[in-house]
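does this look right to u?? zinc ion version
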Amino acid sequence: MKKSEFFDFITSVPKAEIHLHSEAVVSTKTIGTLYKKHFNKEMTKQELDNLFVFSNLTEFVQAFITLQKLFNTPEDFELLFDDIENYLKENNIVYSELFFSPSSFIRKGFVFDEMIAVFDKCINAIKKRSGIEIKILVDVSRTFGLENAMANLNYILANGSKNIVGIGLGGDEVHNPAEIYEPVFTKAKEAGLHVVAHAGEDVGPESVWNTLSALKAERIGHGITSIQDEKLMQELAAKKIPLEICVTSNVFTKKLVTKAKEHPVKKFFEKNIVVTVNTDDPAFFNTSLVNEYWILHKELGFSMDEIKTLILNGFNAAFCSKQKKSAYKKAVEEAWLKKTAE
Ligand SMILES: [Zn+2]
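got this back:
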């Protein structure tokens, strides 16, 4: 199938995206607006280009923090949600779980409840306007230690927004092993929150094992170094722990792969691991969800039938009710049939 045909086909099918960092959906227009508000001058092309230059995960995290610094008030997030709505619509993503990392904002004086109030307002408006469902996974963060992560969890529990469905663990995987955060994850689970964690992105399979045993994560963000451990792959398949795969992101951060073709996603799929497809940070990596599916089809040999399975996996792995999953999956089958009959 030609690229344009594929894009047309896959865009017509409703999809879920469950590993997407909210700030990383920002448009260059919003960056320009925030920059002007922040520094009271126009951003130069050079400054914009510099923001998106990074050659490994550490530099990427730095770029992410630079972007976060442009947000000065919780209201600034409204611009971000306009970008998120556009992104979701363009890709026909009808259900999304967005990571939000409050730590750096709280450290510069933002109030958690005020930020979530803006999120709730925007999420509810998008639902009303476009029918698109957005849920939040709060990244309690592994960069600032246990106390900070526990404080984030306590903010979530005190806030009680229905749009927050769980917690995640992102940030520096190398210096902050998962087990440090066990008390936070245990408490979150007891409170009825879902729990996911990035693991096996920057550290070997032992990080995924720790995440499964200490944090009881229901899904693994990336998990790509699992390819180095046959037993771990068997465990992921047997326990049906989905991997949130983000091919372009992994190519950019160069930990395990430097080309899409080298990515282990097809091997995971063949070993019956539940694979889901995501972008991670579309603005930083200049990609989109439809483009990620294209890469899987073109570079990694996923047939169209397998692409459909991946799309259905996105809904199966989502934290929404069984009834909603069934309705979404029915819509996928219908759209697929319609497109195939053309
Ligand atoms: Zn991520």
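The pocket of zinc ion is lined by residues 19, 21, 170, 198, 221, 280 (CB under 6 Å). idk if thats expected tbh
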